[in-house]
Design goal:
With 306 residues, the chain is mainly alpha-helical. 62% of the residues lie in helices and 9% in strands. The strands form 2 sheets. It has a 3-stranded antiparallel sheet. A 3-stranded antiparallel sheet has the order 4-6-5. α4 packs across α5, α7 packs antiparallel against α8 and α11 packs antiparallel against α14. The C terminus is likely disordered.
C-alpha cells in the first residue's frame, strides 16, 4: 500500500463521501466531549492544540525535561504567529483548569513546568486520528485504521509529524477567505462540519448545492454558539454569495455555492495528505509491512494511476 498523493486524494470520486464521513465523526466527538471541542474549534486553537499535543507525545522516559513545557509551547506558537504570548499562556492554563492537561510529577528542575495530556484529551485526539485513517481507507481499500488500532505506536509517531507539517503548510495554516471567516471564529469549524455533513450523498455538479432546511437558532443551541456570532458568520457568507436560502428571511432550503464547497474540500485535502504521509512514515520507522495490492482496484476504478 503506497501513500496517496494530495492530488489523488482531492480528485478521488469518493472524496466528497469521506468529507461527509469525517464531518459526522468530528460532530460525534464534539457531542461526546463538548468542552474539549470548544477549546479547539477555532482554527487558531486547532493550530495550538495540535502543536502542544505533538510536543506531549515527544516526551521520552530517559529525559524528564522532554516533551511539552510551557516555554516550548509558547515559543512554537510565537513562531507560527498563531497567537500572542499571553494568549498561548492563557490557553495552557485553560486546558489545565478543564483537566485536559496536567503537570508531570517529580520533575528534577522546578524551574521547568512539564505538562502531559490527560486520558480524556489523549482519547479524543486518537479518535480524531482514527477517524481520518478510516476515511483514507475508503479511498483505496487500505488497512490504516486496523493497523493503527493494533499498534498504538503508529499514532504516537504519526500525529506529531502530521501536526508539524500542517502548522507549517501555508495552505492549511491560512485557509481561503471563503471559509476563513468561519474557521477563525470560535466553533466556526463545527459549523462548517455541520454544513458539509448535510451535503447529499450523490455527486452534484451544480453551482448551488441544496442541503435542506437549516435553523440558525437550533445550530446555535447544538454547538453552544451565541446567536450574534453565528449570524455574523452567515451574513458575511451570504453577502459574498457563498451560501443562501431559497426564501426570504432565511426560510426554505439552504444552498451552498460550488466555490464554497470546493474551497473547503481543497483545504481539507491538505490535512488528509499530511496524515497519509505521516502514517506511512510511521510504518517505515517501525518496519511494518502492508499489503501492496489492496489499493490497486479502487485507484484504477477511480481513473487514477495505481
Amino acid at each position: 500500500m503506497r501513500p496517496l498523493t494530495r492530488t489523488e486524494i482531492a480528485v478521488h470520486p469518493l472524496f466528497p463521501t469521506i468529507e461527509k464521513q469525517i464531518a459526522e465523526h468530528l460532530i460525534a466527538i464534539h457531542l461526546r466531549t463538548p468542552r474539549l471541542s470548544r477549546l479547539k474549534a477555532s482554527h487558531r486553537k486547532w493550530l495550538m492544540t495540535h502543536s502542544l499535543f505533538a510536543l506531549s507525545l515527544q516526551r521520552r522516559d530517559d529525559d524528564p525535561l522532554s516533551g511539552l513545557t510551557a516555554t516550548r509551547f509558547v515559543e512554537i506558537v510565537m513562531k507560527l504567529g498563531a497567537a500572542s504570548r499571553n494568549t498561548a499562556t492563557a490557553f495552557l492554563a485553560e486546558l489545565v483548569a478543564y483537566k485536559f492537561l496536567r503537570d508531570v510529577p517529580d520533575v528534577p528542575d522546578r524551574r521547568v513546568r512539564v505538562l502531559e495530556t490527560t486520558e480524556t484529551a489523549y482519547d479524543a485526539m486518537k479518535a480524531w486520528f482514527m477517524g481520518h485513517m478510516a476515511c483514507l481507507d475508503r479511498l483505496d481499500g487500505g488497512q490504516r485504521e486496523a493497523l493503527a488500532l493494533a499498534d498504538p505506536r503508529i499514532f504516537r509517531i504519526a500525529q506529531p509529524m502530521a501536526a508539524a507539517h500542517l502548522v507549517e503548510d501555508p495552505i492549511w495554516r491560512d485557509p481561503p477567505d471563503s471559509i476563513g471567516h468561519f474557521l477563525w471564529s470560535d466553533l466556526g469549524g463545527m459549523v462548517l462540519h455541520d454544513l458539509i455533513a448535510r451535503i447529499p450523498g450523490t455527486p452534484n455538479p451544480a453551482e448551488r448545492i441544496d442541503v435542506g432546511r437549516l435553523s440558525l437558532p437550533e445550530l446555535s443551541e447544538v454547538y453552544m454558539i451565541s446567536a450574534t456570532n453565528l449570524k455574523r458568520m452567515f451574513t458575511k457568507a451570504e453577502t459574498e454569495g457563498l451560501l443562501g436560502w431559497d426564501l426570504p428571511r432565511r426560510r426554505g432550503s439552504l444552498w451552498l455555492s460550488r466555490r464554497f464547497v470546493d474551497d473547503y474540500f481543497q483545504w481539507q485535502s491538505a490535512k488528509f495528505a499530511a496524515l497519509e504521509e505521516a502514517f506511512h512514515h510511521a510504518l517505515a520507522e517501525l518496519g511494518i509491512a502492508t499489503n501492496t495490492t489492496a489499493s490497486q482496484p479502487l485507484l484504477a476504478e477511480a481513473g487514477l494511476p495505481a
